[in-house]
Structures are given as C-alpha cells and as structure tokens.
Amino acid sequence: MNEDWISQIKRGTLEYAVLLQIQKSDRYGYDLVQSMEDFPMLTTKESTVYPLLRRLLKSGYLDSYWKDNSDGIPPRKYYRLTSLGKEYLSKLDKDWKLLVNNIEDLRRSE
Amino acid sequence: MDNRLEKYLKEIDKHLRFLPISEKTDILSELKSSFVDMAHDGMNSEQIIEKMGSAKELAAEYLGDAIVKANGFTWKGFWMAFGFYSLASLTWLSVIPTLASLAFSFLLSSIVSVLAGIVVAFKPFASFYLSEFIVFNIFGYKPEGLAAFVIGIVLAIIFFLLGILFWKLTVITIRKLGDGRYKLRHMA
Predict the structure, then answer these.
(1) Hey, are the CB atoms on B65 and A75 less than 8 Å from each other?
(2) Residue-wise pLDDT tens digits, B24-63
(3) Structural domain of residue B103, as residue ranges?
(4) Residues B96 and B180 both lie in one domain
(5) Are both B170 and B107 inside the same structural domain?
(6) A-chain residues within 8 Å CB-CB of B64?
(7) Which of A12, A26, B159, B167 allows an S-S link to A80, with CB 3.0 to 4.6 Å?
C-alpha cells in the first residue's frame, strides 16, 4: 500500500544511512547490505548499494582500499570516510535534524 | 566460482566495456568478492544471482552514475550511453536514422513534385534547355498541362504528409529512448 512511499524515502536516505555506518568503522559492500537488513525501513538491494558506493567514491566522500583476509577468503574492498566525506556527513546531519523537526512541528500543529 | 556466476560477471563486463579498464576491473573484483561472501553464507549461484538482480540492470546502475557524473555532453558519456543502448536496444538505435532519413526523403519528394508539376504544366509555354526531355511519368501515365500541375500538387501534399508522419515517428522514438535514459539516471 505505502510501498511506493517507503521506496522513495529509502532512495532519499540511503546515502545518509551508508555514510553513517562507514563513519563508525570501515566497511565493505556486502557487509553494509547485510547490516541494513536489520532495519526494515533501510533494507536495500546490492544493485543499489554497490553503485551508490562507487558514486560516493567518485564524489570524493569515500576512499577505498583492498584488504586481504585469512583462511582463503579473497580480498574485500573496504570504504572509509574522507575529510570531505566527514564535512558532507555533518551537513547531512544538520539537514536530517531539520527535516525531523519540521515534520514534528507539522504533526503537532495538527 | 561456478559457470553461472562467471557468465553473470562476463555479461556485466560486456555492458561496462566503455568504462576505463581500471574502473571496470575494480567493479568486477568487488562483485566477485561479494559473491564469495554470499556463497560463504550458504547461498548457491542461483540465489546469488537472484539477489543481485539482472546483470543489465546492475550495469545500468553503474553506467547511469558514470553518465550523469559527466555533466553535459562528452564523447565519453555519449559512447557509454551508446554502448549501453546498443546492447539494450539496438533496434531503436537503427530505427532513428531510418525514420529520420525517410522523413527527409518524403519532404524532399514533396518539393520535387511541386516543381515537376509546374515544369511540366508550363512546358508548352516556355521551352528551355532540355525541357523536351522532361516528362511526368506515373506508372506509365504521362499527364500534361493543367493535369500535371494538379497531380504535382496532390503528390506534393501526400509526400509532405508522409514526411511529417515519419518526422513525428522519429521524434517519438527519440523521446522513448530519452525516457530510457531518464530511467537510467534515476534508478539509483
């Protein structure tokens, strides 16, 4: 019923959700997809997350490196936040707070 | 890695052939490494491919970003879009020039018809160089005088309408492709 709305919200907030996770620790693509499965409003397909990571990389918000693993698992591509990315994320933080406040104000004035 | 996954990666590789090789290799290695992770979590090839979605769509997500990143017209962007669409819809790409040249031919024929009608109609009054050799020939019927003029006009109108029709079809096709491009851009 409201799937359309949810998918639009997801599209708009995915970037923020991904950056928030990478801020805490360096992450790789599959791991990000997995951890977002714990949040029903944020669950996203690989086909959206991987290209998004690439875009953030190209915009200079993220940096990547390949890291070897033990026991025969091939290297994984990790992403970390650049200083430009940190700056960008703090702007998103502000915008997010503003959005939540705006919506709350609207709900209260009902 | 089994055959189906190799095939999947090959298809992505094919769709991304206009990206710089270093970038393409990076994308493919990342995908490969996540396939291994998924297999490690107990997924079989079929489940992995189902989870990833179609190779074409995934490639389009990557390309869409690359094309949009190149703001405005660049040859790189053009070739990437061309490369993608030539696989996605070769038919549409070949249809456009065909329709456009048909439209042009019909419009040209329309002008020629008017001129031919006039020339043939006025031949008796004004003879000029080679005018004796100019004949209006429609499937063996050779009208002269006023009839030639009228037929010329009628033919011109028919050709003109055909020309407009085909030009409209060209525009519709381009717009359809444009929608595709729009989709490519907003899927992310």
Answers:
(1) no
(2) 999 999 999 999 999 988 999 999 999 999 998 899 888 8
(3) 90-186
(4) yes
(5) yes
(6) 51
(7) A26
- The string of pLDDT tens digits covering residues B87-141 is 555 566 677 777 778 888 888 888 888 888 887 777 766 666 666 666 677 777 7
Residues B144 and B116 in one domain: yes
What are the strands, taking DSSP E only, across chain A?
A: 27-28, 62-67, 76-81
* pLDDT reported for residue A63: 96
The answer to whether residues B135 and B181 belong to one domain is: yes
CATH fold, domain A3-108, is Arc Repressor Mutant, subunit A (1.10.10)
- A36 — contact with chain B (CB < 8 Å)? no
ipTM above 0.90, yes or no: no
Six-digit token string for B119: 């020339």
* 8 Å CB contact of B36 and A73: yes
Interface check for B32 against chain A (CB to CB < 8 A): the answer is yes
Residues B13 and B52 in one domain: yes
Q: Is the dihedral of CA B97, B99, B105, B107 positive or negative?
A: negative
